[in-house]
Structures are given as structure tokens and as C-alpha cells.
Design brief:
Number of domains: 1
Number of helices: 21
Distance between the termini: 21 Å
Shape: globular
Structural class: mainly alpha
Number of strands: 0
Largest sheet: none
Length: 472
């Protein structure tokens, strides 16, 4: 899984760098708006069903899995119909007919993602990641590279969406075949009530969460225009690049583990805190690196055309830093059978967030909007620490303190890097980068030796045996 995510990040990184140079800023805005509609409706349909398959450990697992599959199919049909009706109105609202065509392409991929979601849940439940990783790596690579091929063939903005209509269906079929799951015609509808009982809060939480995640996209696109949305979207994706590829490695493993430990609070607490520490150790320096070296990174990878994305990228990276270290909290709610916690939080948080973004858009400034978006989301992350602390019987402030310890070493090493940049009037970016990375690791080992020992042991569990033995 580590290789797959690392490879996926590398390919995505290279493809986006190329497309950013050949496509217009507004093209990225159009794709963002189109994807948002699919994502909002997909969230309603997909949320919670796969998690219920993972969560359920009773004596009727085969029946429950079969029931979940047919419920999933029913929701797929409903969602596809809803998208087909909504797409023309969505395109009209944002005044671009191309949005309608992009949505149709994305809808095909959505259908097959839905079809294979139960198979993916089975892989995750049994922790059988090898076939899942292999299939997703192969098709993910082909999908990313095909975007370049379509761009070279002159498909323009559609090159970003065409792989969803061609590659994603093939991947979905491969996942279903390899999982060995074969649905029976008996739908086992008697289990639908229990599934809905679990998923209603998951669905509610994720729908509201989707509005939080995508509300800024909708508002920026409508009030600031597609070009600024394109800048914002690229900055947002680049800020999330490491987060999106590293965190699933942890969360895909930890949710089934948390689910198995839900009755043993001391062990659950220990595993949860260790997970937070591991994520913080890796993500805090990486994302701090993004902030410190934003300008050379943006100019080198995407080109001078995207210079306007530098400051939004730095601001969003700060938000992603806190989002990363707090990311296991939502998984803890679902794994312990308490998805209502996340739902009730978002019920309060969503209108506050959307209202704040809407007010920020009145300034007609992408920078102001980005600052407000990030500040509100960071506050939300801190609330999750306190909510998750109640589940594992530990104070939220203690969780925050334990998690953010690596931030101390980052701040310490950042000071000489900034002084070096200020007084040495030479372009020595590589030297600054090496100073930051090696300095962080050295200071972490010296200042936090206990945490280093724990993390060193935990990291070896995610590495191949050869590398694990090398680290001993």
C-alpha cells in the first residue's frame, strides 16, 4: 500500500504539472465545479454502506454483505437519475454548457465506483490489501497518464474527465472479479433497516462534510469566476497532495483495528494516540516544507503562469497541516459505532462555515476567502480533538499537546532557515531544503527521544520486511 500511494502521488504530481502548463486556469475551475455536483450526490449514496460491512461482525456476514450490495445498487440508480436531471441546471447556474458534458463523463465513473464499493469494503475488512493495491495502482496509473494523452489529442478540458468514463469502469470490474464476491438474487431486505440505522448519521455527517469541503468551491466559482476558481483549485489540490496519498494508508488500516478494539477502551486509546503521533511526525514537517518553499515549488512544477497560486497554497497548506493530524477522529466515530457525533458536529459547523465563506466572497479577494476558509476549518479540527477525547476518556488538550509536539522542532529549525534566506543573498534553495529536513529529524530525535522510539517501532509495521529489519 505504501508503494501504491507513493507511486500514485508521483504520477499525479507529474500529470498535474504537465496539464497545468497546457490547459487554461478556467479549465481546472470547470472540472472542479462539475466534480462537486457528482461528489455531493455520490456522498449521499455511498456514505456508510461500506463502513457498515466493515463494522458488522455478527453471524450473518454473508447475508449483510449481499443486502448491502443490493441497497447500494438501488441507490446508484436513484443517484444517476438525480444527476441526469440536475446537470443541465448546474451548467446553466454557472453559465457554461461544457459543465453538462463533463458531468456525463464523470457519471460513468461514478456508476462503476458505486458498483465496486462493497468489494472494496470486503478487502478492507479482511485487511487483504495486496490485490486492492495492485488493481488500484495499475488502473490509477493508466488513468493519470491517459489525461496527458487526451490533452495531446486536443480534448482540452475534457481530457481531465475522460479517464473516468473509460478507465474507471475497467477498474471497477476488476475489483469485483478479484474480490470473489458474487451477489445472490435474494436481496435480504430485512437487513436494510439496520444498515440505514447505522448509515443515517454517516450519510448526514458526510453530506454536511461535503458541503464544508466543497462549499468554498461553489462560492468561489460563482462569485469570483472560473479563472480564480482554477487557481484556488490547483492550490487546494497541491496542498492536499501528500495528505491525500499518505493518510489513506493509515486510515484504511486503523478503522478496522479501531472497530475491533471498540470494547477495550485502554487499548483503543493507546492505538489512537499512537496513530495521531505517527501522522503528526510525518505530515507536520512535510507540509511545513510546502509552506516554506511554496514559491520555488509552484514556479518549478506548474510554471510562472500559476504564480497567483503561491499565497493561497501556503494558507491552505497550514489548514491541511492541522487537518492531517486530526484526520483519524472521524474514523474513530464510525469505528466505535458512534457516527452521530460527527453528524451533530457538522450540523452546527456547516452553516457557520458556509456563511463565513459567503461573507468572505463579498470582498472579491481570493486571499481573504482562503484565509477565512482555512481559519474556520482549523477551529473545526480542534473541536474534533475534544469530541474524540470523550470517546477514549482523555482530555482534548492532552490529545492536542501530544499530537503537535513535532511542531516545536519545525519552528526551531525554520528560524535558521529563514535567517539564512534573509542574510545570504544567494539562491541556495537546495541547501535550505536539506537544512530544514535534516535539522528536523536531528532535533526530533534529540528533543523527543521517547516519541522517536515509539514512532520508529510503528513505522516498521508499514514497511516491507527488508526495510523494517534495516531500521532495527
Amino acid at each position: 500500500m505504501l508503494f501504491r500511494k507513493g507511486w500514485g502521488a508521483l504520477v499525479s504530481f507529474a500529470v498535474m504539472a504537465y496539464l497545468a502548463r497546457v490547459l487554461n486556469k478556467s479549465d481546472f475551475g470547470l472540472l472542479a465545479i462539475s466534480s462537486t455536483l457528482i461528489g455531493l450526490i455520490e456522498t449521499v449514496a455511498l456514505s456508510g454502506i461500506g463502513e457498515y460491512v466493515i463494522f458488522y461482525h455478527g453471524d450473518k456476514e454473508k447475508e449483510v454483505t449481499n443486502s448491502a450490495f443490493w441497497l447500494n445498487i438501488l441507490l446508484t440508480v436513484v443517484v444517476c437519475a438525480a444527476v441526469l436531471v440536475a446537470a443541465p441546471f448546474w451548467a446553466s447556474f454557472y453559465k457554461d454548457d461544457r459543465i453538462n458534458k463533463i458531468i456525463w463523463l464523470l457519471l460513468i465513473g461514478f456508476f462503476f465506483n458505486m458498483l465496486s464499493s462493497i468489494s472494496v469494503a470486503q478487502f478492507r475488512k479482511t485487511l487483504d490489501y495486496k490485490p486492492l493495491v495492485l488493481i488500484q495502482t495499475i488502473f490509477g496509473t493508466v488513468s493519470q497518464l491517459s489525461q496527458i494523452a487526451f490533452a495531446l489529442l486536443g480534448f482540452g478540458v475534457y481530457s481531465l474527465a475522460l479517464p473516468n468514463a473509460i478507465i474507471t469502469p475497467a477498474m471497477g470490474i476488476a475489483l469485483i472479479y478479484k474480490s470473489g464476491f458474487r451477489p445472490r438474487f435474494n436481496m435480504n431486505k430485512e437487513h436494510w433497516g439496520n444498515i440505514f440505522g447505522y448509515t443515517k448519521h454517516v450519510i448526514g455527517a458526510r453530506v454536511l462534510g461535503k458541503f464544508v469541503n466543497e462549499g468554498d468551491t461553489l462560492i468561489v466559482g460563482k462569485f469570483l469566476g472560473m479563472e480564480l476558481l482554477g487557481v484556488y483549485n490547483l492550490a487546494f489540490k497541491f496542498a492536499h497532495l501528500f495528505f491525500a496519498n499518505f493518510l489513506p494508508i493509515i486510515t484504511n488500516v486503523t478503522m478496522p483495528v479501531f472497530s475491533q478494539l471498540k470494547e477495550n477502551i485502554p487499548r483503543l486509546r493507546d492505538n489512537f494516540i499512537r496513530t495521531l503521533k505517527l501522522i503528526a511526525f510525518v505530515t507536520i514537517p512535510v507540509i511545513s516544507f510546502q509552506i516554506l518553499f511554496a514559491e520555488p515549488l509552484i514556479n518549478l512544477i506548474y510554471g510562472p503562469k500559476w504564480h497567483d497560486a503561491i499565497i493561497p497554497f501556503q494558507i491552505l497548506s497550514l489548514f491541511v497541516l492541522f487537518k492531517s493530524v486530526g484526520s483519524p477522529t472521524s474514523g474513530l466515530y464510525n469505528a466505535t459505532g458512534k457516527p452521530q457525533i460527527g453528524f451533530y458536529f457538522l450540523l452546527i459547523f456547516t452553516p457557520i462555515f458556509i456563511g463565513s465563506v459567503f461573507l468572505s466572497s463579498l470582498f472579491k479577494s481570493l486571499i481573504i476567502t482562503t484565509i477565512i476558509v482555512s481559519a474556520i476549518r482549523i477551529l473545526g479540527t480542534f473541536v474534533h480533538f475534544f469530541l474524540s477525547g470523550k470517546i477514549i476518556n482523555v482530555k482534548g488538550l492532552i490529545l492536542i499537546k501530544e499530537t503537535l509536539k513535532p511542531l516545536v522542532t519545525v519552528i526551531i529549525i525554520s528560524i535558521p532557515v529563514l535567517i539564512f534566506r534573509l542574510f545570504i543573498k544567494m539562491d541556495l534553495i537546495i541547501v535550505e531544503m536539506l537544512l530544514f529536513l535534516t535539522g528536523y529529524l536531528f532535533l526530533f530525535i534529540k528533543i523527543l527521544p521517547k516519541e522517536w522510539h515509539e514512532i520508529n517501532n510503528d513505522v516498521r509495521q508499514f514497511l516491507p520486511d527488508e526495510l523494517s529489519r534495516f531500521m532495527k
